[in-house]
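Record format v2
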Amino acid sequence: MRARTILMAVGLGMLLGGCSPIQPWVKPYEREHFADPIMSFNRDPISTTYLEHVMESREGARGATGGVGGGCGCN
Amino acid sequence: MQLNVIRHRLLTLVFLSVCATPAVTGVLPEDRTDALYHRYQGGGITIQGPDILVQKKITDNFALTGSWYQDYISSASIDVKLSASPYKEKRTQESGGFMYLHGKSTYSAGLIHSTEPDYKANTTYYSVSQDMFGDLTTLSLTYKRGWDKIYRDLKDAASGQIINDPSFGGFDKDGNPISSKDADHRGYSLGISQILTRTLIASFNYEVLTDQGYLQSPYRKILYLNPTAGLGYTQAEQIYPNTRTSNAGAMQLKYYAPWHAAFSGSYRYFSDTWGIHAHTAELGYTHPALKRFIFDASFRYYTQNAASFYSDLFPRANSQNFMARDRELAAFNSYTLGAGLSYDFPIPKNPWVNRSTFNLRFDHLLIDYKDYRNALLIGANPEWSAGNEPLYKLNANIFQIFWSIWF
């Protein structure tokens, strides 16, 4: 009985914990490096696109090459 | 002509150039114009031309994108020498799209149109991106749909002009000739970018692509053994499956070094229903110096096995249902070494230009084929009978020069 109560309390705690918003572990003021152009996955899209075209024209593989952008939240 | 089988890939890439950048949600990308001249030379092919890309905000939450791209192709590649005649042609491609920002979501859509004498393609794309978890994470979903029409060029016996084969697509029920064949494409992709620490960011991409229709080149041939033929082989038409589905998953990492530089690394795994499995790995280093310069260096490694219906030399005619000898479906390793230089310079007396850069990039590509032989050498040496000639290697130089302005 006692063990069941403890398990229920732990489970309830986990559920309630899941309701709280995730706290960013890298604060906005700590993201200045991601605003630097050298940290972009795709600094010059026109060049990256052309080079990927050259490669994919000669290879069997394709897809999943277009980075989804920075998503850095640095602006 | 020989390049039409790769058209869909080019469309995919142009789509990404227009669509991937705005995935930085929460804010639209900067107003920017790039003008690029590109030149590829290797394996008897020279491809060069201009490329222009424009991104312009109309309001704070609405932007337009557009691009214009041309290839001038002069080809005397090993495939062309073996089964056709050297040729020159021009390919043009235009695209247009928009981005709409609403809160932490960005919606994108657009159209890409490509034409060349024997290939026409239209692709539409739709994408949504969402910032979440305190803007540490960006999730993107994309759907695209493409419709291609493939023609086959031939020389008109009467005029000597190059024309589209009027009955390449067969005949309709009334007996009228059809000049083209169709290929349809669909793509579904999921992307996540994630800030991991103050100096490390990662992105994950997964993409499924499906194709249906005429998926091969109408010009390239297979070879099969024929001891009664002069060189010991005979050429025949390729036969591809009418469907293909592929899966690709990739991960990228970017690390900010304390001395103001960046390291990058990426890996992609690919597999498809044609039996191809491929691995791609790339390392890069970016180093700003002398206030206005940025140096880039990169190395890319790629390896794949052959498609299940590929063979350099088939044992006999009609030896199996599907048969191909396209180099893209062979087994090979590929190595690319690249270097780039960017110079950031002000344009005086132009207050509307915030920043501009002049850029150079050079890459050297080596492809080492494991089961694609240089059939042009058959008979050149007594030991080089069909199937015993040397393996083919491709060396190519890729040059880019471009100017970018932010306004």
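Chain B touches chain A through 95 residues (CB under 8 Å).
Residues 7-19 of chain B form the longest helix (13 residues).
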